[in-house]
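Give me the fold.
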Amino acid sequence: MDYYLIAWKRGFDFSGRSSREAFWMFMLVHFLVTLACIAFDIAFDTWFDAIYGVVSFIPMIAAMVRRLHDTDRSGGWVWIFLVPVVGPFWLVYLLIQTKSDNREMEGFA
């Protein structure tokens, strides 16, 4: 849960790096919150999922950019998502990557 809160605190920070663990734990909690919002929308006919999606869009992109920096890639690689069919899979592949050296991971540092 700490990684999720740290990602929100650094929601507009597109510099620095984030470890694989920090990024994927953020994405897991983000996914679970999204599912909860969807369930709430279905049960009570609200717009919580749409609101959460709009509010969390920039912090999610910032976390992806920091993760790409950790793999020694430019944050601009996040745009690969827009390539039809293969783009989202390619982006996930890039986000999974790790650097070969033994640099110390600092979470969302």
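The chain has one domain: 2-96.
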